[in-house]
Specification:
heterodimer, A: 351 residues, alpha/beta, Rossmann fold, 2 domains, 7-stranded mixed sheet, 5-stranded mixed sheet, 18% strand, B: 410 residues, 5-stranded parallel sheet, two-stranded antiparallel ribbon, globular, branched-chain 2-oxo acid dehydrogenase activity (chain A)
Chain lengths: 351, 410
């Protein structure tokens, strides 16, 4: 091991307590340092460092040609990223809120996702589209959406969502390194601390939680791999993002020994971990913030039904946002909190 | 007009419909040689006059006149003429092949050959084009194998895109030809992103964006111009105004009473409006724009005024919406005929050479077609393997695609 590698190893072993914002920023810092082809751009990400501080200080450190502000044009941001990737760069493009990705959907779906296939590999889209998503913050209709199902059904895309600082950094690094286009959804409700849906209690900062211990240097969390965040025997809860914390709270509060699986990679996903768990628990609950009809949960239900039919002892249950736009005043009647999840757990456990 | 009259919606209409004659005075032509040539470092706002006039080099007698008449070697002009003739010969042969049901679909560029060919000759190897489906002249000029192009059209066993793409949606990275998408306008902003990347890396290569008059109405056109201006991207922003978007006259893209070049001025992009059927003007304007880009002086928008002489595609019948003899009345004529006349006028070409070249090209295309068909056609089922269908969706095939491939039994 030469001196440089030793130093890198040392860096990798140094661990700091980070919020999800700091962890995401650290991932981009690491990748900007490791790969000259990584560039970061989006609305307000440059000088200002992002409306959520996720790119704070990166422009000062790496210069304006690596980290820069973009016009307010989501199709422009996504389309420019496709062109940059065709050239050979590895762009990390930020969409300020997932609610504002729709103008970019043509570029993401028709171009980034299809480019490798339609050109038989002559051109590729090694792009990461970062976008804050999810509710629970009184964000109303256009600062709370969870549009993952729009992307999970697009062949050629990878859709990823972390639920804690350690995974956020490791998954973002893996996404940036991926030669496939990745839609990287960041639950903004989890930016500063875990949230189990108890909006009436004070929020605990990440510093008090073990997943806030984040290596300062390079590491990755592989894509397509789920995590069992709470082992259990009675029922499997399939979830991701903020509701990973809701699921754990509901399990504790009901006393039902649920196995909580954080999918982390939504699609392609880790089917093996899911099937193994459901075959063991024989019951399954699918939980997400997004609206129910044709939401990603429908695909999860379908996969479990297909692969675990003879092991199931109860119908698969879904707890999701309602099929309405995300309301403002009725936030806690909309958000699938621990009470709704707990009630569903009890229903599935009934004989 | 009183302010109490009822409002009425203005819906543009072309002057010529089937059975009528088009009044082409709306084109705002300028005499050959009459439009000035600004310095490369011109301020975009100072190209306002150029965006409303028409840069032309070849006059009625086939002479090159005015400030845009460059000292172009007869060899290069002959190369350009040959590439245009080859493009047309390729198109006409493939049109027949489509009628014979050997191809499912085809798109000609009849009448627009000068633009893609002329610009390609003004670019360097390594520059990247982001074409639409009507710039096949780029591939012909860069001497891509016509056999291989036909294999793509036939979706046969030698199709470089493995049968995944509709005919004409070519992709030739090595020839500086970006993968064509069916989604209109998307490549315009991508070309700007590619140019930004070249600037980020301190490269010397530039990109060339292509769009038709109709697609300028798409939002990616606006994004492309905005980003090109904001980042001073080294890109040529081409608008091929062939007057028609399938059945809709260019007025429906917003061309009525204005020009597409004029759009560039509002974005702070230097803009030219050029006779697209004048090969010498195409080459000169393209070189000017390429030089500007290469010297970091920023992007240039060029509106190429031309006419879509053929049907929109093999699925289209233009006699349903425009006069059948429209092309013969188009005041800018035929690009091949005009360059031929010029070359003969300067003593660098002859009727006999033209005829011989035409015959040789037709024979070359016919023999390429024969070879391409020997690798199969969509009709005879010698198409790429069904297993290929699952490749290339991702870099590595994920588990679900592996399972689906097994379900198909391939």
């Amino acid at each position: 091991m030469n001196a440089l590698n030793e130093q890198k190893a040392h860096e990798a072993s140094a661990v700091a307590s980070m919020t999800m914002i700091q962890a995401l920023r650290s991932a981009m810092d690491v990748m900007l340092g490791r790969d000259d082809n990584v560039v970061i751009f989006g609305e307000d990400v440059g000088y200002f460092g992002g409306v959520f501080r996720c790119t704070d200080g990166l422009q000062a450190k790496y210069g304006k040609s690596r980290v820069f502000d973009a016009p307010i044009s989501e199709n422009g941001i996504a389309g420019a990223a496709v062109g940059m990737s065709a050239y050979g760069l590895r762009p990390v493009a930020e969409i300020q809120f997932a609610d504002y990705v729709y103008p970019a959907v043509d570029q993401i779906v028709s171009e980034a996702a299809r480019l490798r296939y339609r050109s038989n590999g002559q051109f590729t889209s090694a792009i990461t589209f970062r976008m804050p998503c999810g509710g629970g913050i009184y964000g109303g209709q256009t600062h709370s959406q969870s549009p993952e199902a729009i992307f999970t059904q697009v062949c050629g895309l990878r859709t990823v969502m972390p639920s804690n600082p350690y995974d956020a950094k490791g998954l973002l690094i893996a996404s940036i390194e991926s030669d496939d286009p990745v839609v990287f959804l960041e639950p903004k409700r989890l930016y500063n601390g875990p949230f189990d849906g108890h909006h009436d209690r004070p929020v605990t900062p990440w510093a008090k939680h073990p997943t806030a211990a984040v290596p300062e240097g390079y590491y990755n969390v592989p894509l397509d791999s789920a995590a069992v965040v709470r082992p259990g025997k009675q029922i499997t809860i399939l979830t991701y993002g903020t509701t990973v914390w809701v699921a754990q709270a509901a399990a504790e509060e009901t006393g039902i020994d649920a196995e909580v699986i954080d999918l982390r990679s939504l699609w392609p996903l880790d089917l093996e971990t899911i099937v193994e768990s459901v075959k063991k628990t024989r019951r399954c609950l699918v939980l997400h913030e997004a609206t129910r009809t044709c939401g990603f949960g429908a695909e999860l239900v379908s996969l479990v039904q297909e692969h675990c039919f003879y092991h199931l002892e109860a119908p698969i249950e879904r707890v999701t946002g309602w099929d309405t736009p995300y309301p403002h005043a009725q936030e806690w009647d909309y958000f699938p909190g621990p009470a709704r999840v707990g009630a569903a757990l009890k229903r599935v456990m009934e004989v | 007009m009183s302010d109490s009259e009822r409002l009425c919606l203005h819906v543009p209409e072309p002057t010529g419909r089937p059975g009528c004659q088009t009044d082409f005075t709306y084109l705002k032509l300028s005499p050959a040689g009459s439009v000035r040539r600004p310095p490369l470092d011109v301020e975009p706002v100072d190209t306002r006059d150029l965006s409303m006039q028409l840069i032309r080099v070849l006059d009625e007698n086939g002479q090159a006149v005015g400030p845009w008449a460059e000292d172009i070697s007869p060899d290069l002009l002959r190369r350009g003429l040959r590439a245009m003739m080859k493009t047309r010969a390729f198109d006409s042969r493939m049109l027949i092949a489509q009628r014979q049901k050997k191809l499912s679909f085809y798109i000609q560029c009849l009448g627009e050959e000068a633009i893609a060919v002329g610009q390609t000759l003004a670019l360097r190897d390594g520059d990247m084009n982001f074409p639409t489906y009507r710039q096949q002249g780029i591939l012909i000029t860069r001497e891509v194998s016509t056999v291989e192009m036909m294999c793509q059209l036939l979706s046969n066993e030698r199709d470089p895109l493995k049968g995944r793409q509709l005919p004409v949606m070519y992709s030739y990275r090595d020839a500086g030809f970006f993968s064509i998408s069916g989604n209109l306008g998307t490549q315009y902003i991508q070309a700007v992103g590619w140019a930004m990347a070249s600037a980020i890396k301190g490269d010397t290569r530039i990109s060339s964006a292509w769009i038709g008059d109709g697609s300028t109405a798409a939002s990616d056109f606006h994004a492309g111009l905005t980003f090109a201006h904001v980042y001073k991207a080294p890109v040529i922003l081409n608008v091929v105004n062939n007057q028609w978007a399938i059945s809709t006259f260019q007025a429906f893209a917003g061309g009525e009473g204005t020009t597409f070049a004029a759009r560039g001025i509002g974005y702070g992009v230097a803009s030219l409006r050029v006779d697209g059927n004048d090969f010498l003007a195409v080459y000169a304007a393209s070189r000017w724009a390429a030089e500007r880009a290469r010297r970091n002086l920023g992007p240039t928008l060029i509106e190429w005024v031309t006419y879509r002489a053929g049907p929109h595609s093999t699925s289209d019948d233009p006699s349903k919406y425009r006069p059948a003899d429209d092309w013969s009345n188009f005041p800018l004529g035929d690009p091949i005929a005009r360059l031929k006349k010029h070359l003969i006028a300067i003593g660098a070409w002859s009727e006999q050479e033209h005829e011989e070249t035409q015959k040789a090209l037709e024979a070359e295309i016919a023999s390429a077609q024969k070879e391409a068909e020997s690798y199969g056609t969509l009709g005879n089922g010698r198409v790429p393997s069904a297993a290929d269908m699952f490749e290339g969706v991702y870099k590595d095939m994920p588990e679900h695609l592996r399972r689906q491939r097994q379900q198909l039994g391939v």
